Amino acid sequence: MTSMEQMKQIILLMKTIDRQVTMQFEKQTDISMTRYELLCTLLDGGTVPQQVLKQAIQIDQAAITRHLKLLEEEDFVMRSRNTDNNREVLVSLTEEGRARLVHCQDDKNEYFKQLTTQFSEQDIQTLYTLLERLKHNSDKSK
Question: Can you state the percent helix, strand and coil of the chain, rounding each to 5?
């Protein structure tokens, strides 16, 4: 197998792993990966404009609105209009959302521990370095 064919197989393998990890994460935590990322962004940033969330997790406006609506219905986030700029929607994490996030982080940590049981610290560092290099090359080719 040529290195080009191997690279193609590596990319397909990464895509498969991503799907499996996402599916297992969502099954274990009972929350979508995107909503989890939104909650984490809010935990780090406090009250932020919806536009900042959209940029942080890189999804379109309709998707961010849909996810936030579902999180709001579950009382995980609160949305309000910015009093200084009525067109801007501010989003903040509720106490219920904060509690849910802590529970999800515990489940996530346990899952990632299971996922990497046969990896040494050096294995993980090497994989990270190689994937960062691949991402860097991908970003340059845009």
Answer: 70, 10, 20
